[in-house]
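Session log. Operator J.P. requested a structure for one protein chain; no other inputs attached. Running the standard single-chain path with token output.
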Amino acid sequence: MQERDSVIDKISATLPEPPEPLGNYVGVITVGELVFVSGHGTAKPDGSYILGKVPTDCSETEAYEAARLVGINILATLKAHLGDLKRIKKVVKVFGMVNAEPSFADHPSIINGCSDLMVEVFGESGRAARSAVGVSSLPMNIPVEIEMIVQI
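Structure written below.
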């Protein structure tokens, strides 16, 4: 537990400001012991976005890193909402969407960018049920959008 807390403290110190919702919705809401995080995108700390369709405009490696960035943005939102990421008991569900060409079939490897981060931060408690799907487009042409449910 002490090692987990140390990793959480380290990542918490480096998190950017959470991204603002792009529409008429909230970025996160708590219902009982579950926290539902709305779909997050590839916002960079400078306000710009990683863009492009996988794998034509955004390589698989770049898309994996984009999914990791989305995970960081989700953690930033959770920290702002909860006050402390140590309140998270379990990452319950990850739903990842990849803006992909119709012939692209390796969506799980892209969403691993986020899933790998959650396991790095929370250990086995970060390993979640998950869906990784390909879609024909995402807002602003971002390559990855991810939503999450965590237990507190």
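Operator note: The longest strand covers residues 90-99.
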